[in-house]
Amino acid sequence: MQSRLSGHLRWLLLVAALALVVAACAPEDDPEEDPDDDVEVDDDPDEDEPDEDEPDEEEDPDEEEDPDDEAEAPDGGEFSMYLCEPERLLSQESSEVCGSQVLDVLFTGLVAYDPETSEVVEGGMASSIESDDNVDWTIEIEEGWEFHNGEEVTADNYVDAWNWMADPENEMGNASFLATAGFEGYQEVADGEADEMAGVEVVDDYTIEVSLVEPFGPFELLIGYTGFHPLPDEFYDMEATEFEEAPIGNGPYMMDGEWERGQRIMLERFDDYGGEPANAQAVEMRIYDDVGTAYLDFEAGELDIHDGVPPESRTQALEEYGDRAFDNEVSSYDYLGFPTFVEPFDDPDLRKAISLAIDRESIIDVIFEGARTPATSALPPILPAHRDGACDYCEHDPERAQELYEGTDGIDGTLELYFNSGAGHEEWMESVSLQLEDTLGIDDIEFNSLEFAEYLELHDAQEVEGPYRLGWVTVYPSPQYSMELYLEDSPSNYAGYDDPEFNDLMAEANATEPEEADEIYQEAEDILLEDLPIAPLWYGLDTVVHSERVDNVIANTRTFIEVADVEVVE
Fold this sequence. Notes:
It is built from 17 helices and 20 strands.
């Protein structure tokens, strides 16, 4: 759909961008009243009964009273938190943050990641993951873990889940990660020539052997991803859609009732959990379709944790709530992609000129109220391989942009800018168009905004004919994930980028031990950023606030709250 924002709004944005040079821009947004103010408030239907969990008979008369006990809620207490509406609640299919936040609480995978550094830490089900050649891997899992229905978690639960995910009849999106790692026999299953992957074997109840078609160093990082969660035997007795109403996992919390779409998901602590027990007894994940409405509820004292504070409220939240508000640097980043398969975007100098003409700082300050970080690399800062300033064409340099642009054939006719509608991209795209007009003299610009599903279909069909917006979250902490998006045969390589040297370096890095692979990934990144099929724009920054009722609120780099760590103190 062709469209462009009103002249009035364009004028406002231009004025705001110019005003930034001499003064901070005062936010004038007045949050609109949201009619969806009927989200149920936690009414705690289970009125607390006197807890019979009294101290044991062997009471120590000399025992001193712990002053901290006064701050702890009985049984760990209950808290509420913001959640956007999940699309799916099936690990083998979910790839969006709303559903993944829930699944990461209901399930515990083979590998756990440090919430701040993304390094592999204790907390996953695997007791060891070993390989001598990065091809043949042996995974040992811990004994004694149970699903929420009492089934023991064994090696079969993982292997069966992976084979079920690989079956093309089940149409599971996360099967692509089996292909990414190169599970031996995956392609045969995907092609309908086999029922199970030849490279996956259950050795005994607690041992799995995996063979890959070629060395893949990030294997250990990859299999901590949501798509590799186990499934209980009970899953295969029902339809997947039925299972999603109340998934049975092996995580620190279990479902308390079914998924109430548009309302909430109630969780109860799983007391037979095989890992470190969760702190709170219960959690209400309250579903909102608007982060602004959730923030109003938080301000009214009706919501305990909100990890999606709207950008226009960020400054006020940080000032007002002190140590109960913080910015969380996450692994997401947005970029402007170029369809290198059509003219004139097959010219690297044109792509560089456009990137240099974009003033990322001013857009972040004016549109996002500072709630982003300008991107200077194709790898997000949460990865050790990230390098500040790796991108030579990501700084705002109007003179250099003009010089490069004048050496190209330029834009002949209309420049179309593409983005998905309804996700808040309209205003900053308008700013980009103004900057291109001001710096490069491109004044015939139109927007092509579509619903997300339709938008992706357009990309899949390579029918995009101008710069487009996309963004990613690094779902497992490896530069391999961030960079494979630009491989020749990657299904997400919407730019149509194809450089043999880049492809070769990626293969070399994947075959190298992770601790030695970063330099090779960076060599590949240098090629990418010199060709610039995508112009990195900014990295994500989520603002989190919490009430006085809770403490130890930690947000990880995948944008998720570490729910099991939250403590209720009132």
